[in-house]
Amino acid sequence: xxxxxxxxxxxxxxxIKHLLKSESEISEVLIQGWVRTRRDNKAFSFLEINDGSTVxxxxxxxxxxxxxxxxxxxxxxxxxxxxxGALVTGQxxxxxxxxxxxxxxVGSAPxxxxxxxxxxxxxxxxxxxxxxxxxxxxxxVFRMRSRLAASIHRFFQxxxxxxxxxxIITASDCEGAGEMFRVTTLExxxxxxxDETKDFFGKAxxxxxxxxxxxxxxxxxxxxxxxxxxTFRAENSNTTRHAAExxxxxxxxxxxxxxxxxxxxxxxxxxxxADALENSPEEVEFLNKFVxxxxxxxxxxxxxxxxxxxxxxxxxxxxxxxxxxxxYPVTWGINLQSEHxxxxxxxxxxxxxxxxxxxxEIKPFYMRLNDDGKTVTAMDVLVPGIGEIIGGSQREERMxxxxxxxxxxxxxxxxxxxxxxxxxxxxxxxxxxxxxxxxLLMFITGVSNIRDVLPFARTPKNCEF
Length: 465
Fold this sequence. Notes:
465 residues, alpha+beta, 8-stranded mixed β-sheet, 13 helices, elongated
């Protein structure tokens, strides 16, 4: 209601990010935000106000005696305020400051406000995830998250991809791993021993691990599509790179092979990095200064350097001949670990790398078998500082081979009848990839823990807020 009242007074709120970019002084302006600091003198007070639109705060100079000044003592760190005044040339480091003409306390914050002091640890801030966006670090991270999401949509929309909202509740396991969250209306307990026909959907249902299979159905009708939404993995993993709930970007392209898939993945990463550098320079500069001092250099390198293509077999040979002792020994047929991926990108090639043609035994059933009978048309995009950031493949379009893969994996053939139908009716070569949104964000912000790029992290034993 207060927002409407301010409008009826003939003044519209202006975000601080716009005021700090102003080309001239403004005689009358209204800002609304939260107090970061306040310093008092006998005749006036200085307030630093931040409204979440930018890393920077705006200094406000309030003379004693102006309307609302009688409550200045309540305008402590964390308090919400509404301030009218004139934007004038700053007397300190900032180009602009606000000379207040009227103050209003909108919401007070007592001394128990957890962010009174600076320098809190990430662990502590995760315990107050509902308040941490008010800090400079998390404000920058979550503005970048918003920017990156918009950039993802723009990348695909500009290339004539259709956005498809694939289901969150599914009866299919895309990865065949079985590590899925069960969705049920049956009584709490061992649902496996109950009659599944009495459940809400008449069968076992789960939270999706990927929208890929449904995306393939739409690609086989609309040609180029992408999904972008939440996915879930019930892995009991407490690493800095895993969460139980995260977002995935998954394009699918009809009439596309592995080569086209790799080209699209490279273009996608470079587009997002260039967009962040160009359109979020303040956040990137802040993160480079306080989170990862090599961030800007690394992002510019990825933006400007063509990605190396390297087969899995070649990658294994490079690792074996490196002379480096890895925690996980390297032999042909293993899943490459983060230490292997980072060696390839950071020490050997000194460049982003796309590794392709992986052993079939370590990849899912839907990837296209190569003529050698040993490898599939899989590819992973590896970047410095993170390792794998994208995984994709050309999909198996040959029905007989796909059905054989499903059987060998011990999966329910009937449950995938709709998926094999795509190969029965007008099958075409098609390819796609999956990019974990949070890993993309970790790479572009330099933040090292996935819990710190999720607004409210869901990890084992952690489902607060």
